[in-house]
Amino acid sequence: MESKGHPGLQYMRVEAELESRKAEGKPEDQIGASLHLALRKGTPQQHLRLNAPCKIEVKHANFYYGSQQALFDISLPIRERQVTALIGPSGSGKSTFLRTLNRMNDLIPQSRLEGEAMMDGENIYAKKTDVVLLRQKIGMMFQRPNPFPKSIFENVAYGLRVQGHAKKVIEEQVERSLRDAALWDEVKDRLKSSALSLSGGQQQRLCLARALAVKPEVLLMDEPASALDPIATLKIEELINELVEYYTIVIVTHNMQQAARIAQFTGFFLSGRLIEHGQTADLFQHPTQPETESYVSGRFS
Ligand SMILES: Nc1ncnc2c1ncn2[C@@H]1O[C@H](COP(=O)(O)OP(=O)(O)OP(=O)(O)O)[C@@H](O)[C@H]1O
């Protein structure tokens, strides 16, 4: 679904819709009200680029775990330097889809993908694709922080050492990545301490710094805040709103308000199918499919 106007107009539509609901005496349900609030705050809208080119283009993807089909004919454009949120109930295929983008599913025996996944016009699944390089270009953060049992410095330096960089370059890049992940000030005096001594939220930002160190172009995030408290969640969301200027981000989230707070585009998954996708504000305010409408209004979860 393409855009239907300037982002400012989106707000006006939201406001108008709210006013008309009120005028008609329609109750504003809880979910509706908080979604409105999240959409009105505007941060993702500030970064909305309606003409952003496609960074990754998936077409007619079917995915199978052995004989079980988990994804059905998914076509989704992932726009460059925009956040695309994948929402939908548990088991709807969001994580499976996310993992097809950097071939993480290759690690699962008997799994297979049909269809097309291209990044910058190159086939992600081509035989000649170097999967290690691909996963550097398309970094990933998981639900639970998974730092290596090494020092804070070594966690971030790891990928750079594999790439064979000189000591000075590694030091500079570690600092830069920690700064970009908004962690530098908290750890600069204890870079040699174990990463496992950090709080959960800090560990998750360390994992982000580790991914950023090898200069990815795309970041995949699989519910990166689901194990974090509200303050740590807020930090991750603020970071995403800054990182979108430089990276293409795809995030799985169970939390619709979170999608509204951070994503320019959203796709709604149900039972392995992509029911609808488009601008986040449109999808929440004017869903075109009845299943989307039911989900965003909280009638099933
Ligand atoms: N490694 C696996 N082997 C076999 N089936 C799997 C595997 N991982 C996921 N599935 C199945 O694929 C389907 C989609 O799961 P997936 O984890 O992608 O959904 P999801 O929307 O991300 O769910 P959640 O929000 O609970 O993480 C489910 O039926 C799940 O049981």
Automatic annotation (TrEMBL):
Keywords: ATP-binding, Hydrolase, Nucleotide-binding, Transport. This is Phosphate ABC transporter, ATPase subunit. SUPFAM superfamilies: P-loop containing nucleoside triphosphate hydrolases. GO terms for molecular function: ATP binding; ATP hydrolysis activity; phosphate transmembrane transporter activity. InterPro entries: AAA+_ATPase, ABC_transporter-like_ATP-bd, ABC_transporter-like_CS, P-loop_NTPase, PstB-like. Pfam families: ABC_tran. The keyword Transport applies. GO terms for cellular component: membrane. It is an enzyme of class 3 (hydrolase). Its EC number is 3.6.3.27. Residues 56-296 form the ABC transporter domain. PROSITE patterns: ABC_TRANSPORTER_1 (PS00211), ABC_TRANSPORTER_2 (PS50893). One of its GO terms (biological process) is phosphate ion transmembrane transport. It comes from the Bacteria. The keyword Nucleotide-binding applies.
